[in-house]
Amino acid sequence: MGGEDERRRFLFVAMPINHFGERVRWTLDLIGAPYEEYTVGGLISAFLRGRSVPQLVDRKSCSMIGNSDECLAYLSAAYAPSIADTRLRAKALSFLRFDEQTMAWDVKLNQLGHLVQGWAYFYVLALDMTPEGCLTAWGAFEPKVPLMHRLILKFGHPFLRKFMRLVFELSNEEVRDRRRKMIESILDEADATLSKQKFLAGDDLSHVDITFSALLAPLLGARLVFAPKSSYANGRFSSFNGAMDRMSDKWPRALLEFEQSLLKRPCAKHCISLYESLRSTQL
Amino acid sequence: MGGEDERRRFLFVAMPINHFGERVRWTLDLIGAPYEEYTVGGLISAFLRGRSVPQLVDRKSCSMIGNSDECLAYLSAAYAPSIADTRLRAKALSFLRFDEQTMAWDVKLNQLGHLVQGWAYFYVLALDMTPEGCLTAWGAFEPKVPLMHRLILKFGHPFLRKFMRLVFELSNEEVRDRRRKMIESILDEADATLSKQKFLAGDDLSHVDITFSALLAPLLGARLVFAPKSSYANGRFSSFNGAMDRMSDKWPRALLEFEQSLLKRPCAKHCISLYESLRSTQL
């Protein structure tokens, strides 16, 4: 029973590359929330259990929050006000503020998240691509993913790929181009905002900056997620370290080219600087 | 499929007399949240499914919140900021504010809720009492309770009563007296506060006043919950209307006497006035 009592308050469930998950994980890390993480293989939870990840379980109140927006909202009201350290509490409440500025960005970034997913999958799941890219992202080579999930990914990826190509309309180049245009337009807006102020929602850091960085990270594969020493998920996934070098030409050229141009943008520099300065610390 | 889309965002699950549930239900009503309610028989959910009520399900984010404190916190951050009507939104956010005053009261009222439960059950579940009182409170005569639950209550109440007497230490008069003393002390504090300001957490209504009223209601059986026209749960439970007259001497005399003295307190008047003025309206 002692072991039960000592369990951490939160259980966080996510898959390896999971940009909406990374914003919640990063928030949990920044506000010092006591949690443990359970990693599932990419897409498997949605397919086998009909529940998408991320999910945040609060053992204290027997609650389960099923969407990243609501996870942050829940943490802001049901956890942050009870942080004992008054300095950290004030910082956490400011970080998780929901005002007009942060809420307007949250809507745009929600859209950005889905656009990044749809646009990048066009290339990663293209018919002429080898499966290494998606298998790496979904965690087929990741020790933190349960063995059974890794086996399902290794043998089931042709089916998953076919299904994803259908639901995300990945054969349609018009949809792909429209997605890219919308991504660029949100990035333009982020660049413009950052030319006027230090952070996306004002002069202080907020969850919006972290959300933005977490959503953009998958487009910074070489520089960030699959770098020799990956800072994504605070280095949780050892299979990501050096994955880009290992994959070499098995990662879509179009994504590498996009990454090169993206790196010149102020908003991408903002993202990388936040990963460098804030990914392994508390507020 | 159309029917699915039109379902209300929230599903609220509670048992008939459920003071922690009533604070969430009343909040949902006041802030105009779109919800439907599912009523379960008293204690049955805890016994058969290992999950206590109330529970709030958010269909939008596939979330399930399992504790009344966290339900209110969730509504404050994940629902109230998105209310379209700006006037109602401002009122809802003020009502659901979590500041030092409301948080200090929330801790005390959580305690009050459990004390009221334990103290009232001492009499309602006494060995020499007929089961009418607990059966009425648990919903054995309530059409909104599923038939199977009503049957379980009607035939299983001796077992439920025995179990409750054990876990709540209902044979121990010392525990009973300590509970009553602690109840009186919190009521004294509420009286003192209301002599200085209009509402428990300042000059404006907050969820603290509603919580207080919902928790006190079961001790106002004749005047409120089982009155000829019950305003408890906004009149949801038709079996509560006139239940006190029907039960007559089957309701514990000690509770009726306590109610008489309670009615003289300013805090009980506050509770009744809120039930009269705010139980069937929006903020």
UniProtKB/TrEMBL annotation, chains A, B:
- State the Pfam families in the record: GST_C
Q: What is this protein called?
A: Glutathione S-transferase C-terminal domain-containing protein
- State the organism named in the record: Symbiodinium pilosum (Dinoflagellate)
Q: Which domain of life is it from?
A: Eukaryota
Species lineage? Eukaryota, Sar, Alveolata, Dinophyceae, Suessiales
Ranges for domain Glutathione S-transferase C-terminal: 171-228
**Database matches in InterPro entries:** Glutathione-S-Trfase_C_sf, GST_C, Thioredoxin-like_sf
